[in-house]
Write a structure and sequence with these properties.
The protein is mainly alpha-helical and 64 residues long. It has a domain of 42 residues. Helix content is 72%, strand content 0%. It has 4 helices and no strands.
Length: 64
């Protein structure tokens, strides 16, 4: 079962209009790997922090 933070992150992505492809590109992951992480099939260390930082970075770029 996916962790709660993944649901929160997906919600933030939706609110900000960020696609999974954009997020995967920002963090340097393959989109399929990102999908596996968000769906709870992979649990890399520090993923929550890395993904939240990448999402924030994308949001900052869009507001500039």
């Amino acid at each position: 079962m996916p962790a709660q933070w993944t649901a929160d992150l997906i919600g933030e992505m939706h609110i900000r209009g960020v696609t999974s492809k954009q997020l995967a590109r920002e963090i340097g992951w393959n989109p399929k790997y990102l999908s596996a992480v968000l769906n709870g099939r992979r649990e890399p260390k520090m993923a929550e922090c890395q993904l939240k930082n990448a999402l924030s970075k994308i949001a900052r770029k869009e507001t500039e």
